[in-house]
Write a structure and sequence with these properties.
It holds the Pfam family Ribosomal_S9. One of its GO terms (biological process) is translation. InterPro entries: Ribosomal_Su5_D2-typ_SF, Ribosomal_uS9, Ribosomal_uS9_bac/plastid, Ribosomal_uS9_CS, Ribsml_uS5_D2-typ_fold_subgr. The chain is α+β, with helices and mostly antiparallel strands and 132 residues long. The N and C termini lie far apart (75 Å). 33% of the residues lie in helices and 23% in strands.
């Protein structure tokens, strides 16, 4: 039985559970198989961002990746997947920690959308002023 390495990532309102299994780079997102992560995210910048932990550690193509992701938009999901992959890699090999930490891949991005306030159009945008 092949061993799985699991990591949970969060970003904005997205949550990603990432499972790594030694393999040849197969990607499954929400029980649907894709050629690569770009098939799901549809944006090469988001794909590069999400796969960065594997690239930095030189392990790209050596794991089959199974991802369960929900909430938010594709950008937030890419960030959540990135953190999930980084945490799963730590389970695989704790010696990768300094490399990942130096690149800031083990830090959860705390930025969230600010709530809308009453009397305003958005969080800070005031209603348009009319002189007459």
């Amino acid at each position: 039985m092949a061993e799985y390495y699991m990591g949970t990532g969060r970003r904005k309102t997205s949550v990603a559970r990432v499972y790594l299994k030694e393999g040849n780079g197969k990607v499954v997102v929400n029980n649907k198989e894709y050629e690569d992560l770009n098939g799901y995210l549809k944006n090469s910048v988001w794909t590069l961002h999400a796969m960065e932990p594997l690239k930095v550690t030189g392990l790209e193509g050596s794991f089959d990746i199974m991802i369960r992701v929900n909430g938010g938009g594709k950008s937030g999901q890419a960030g959540a997947i990135r953190l999930g992959i980084a945490r799963a890699l730590l389970q695989y090999n704790a010696d990768l920690r300094p490399t990942l930490k130096e690149k800031g891949m083990l830090t959860r991005d705390p930025r969230m959308v600010e709530r809308k306030k009453y009397g305003l159009r958005k969080a800070r945008r005031a209603p348009q002023f009319s002189k007459r």
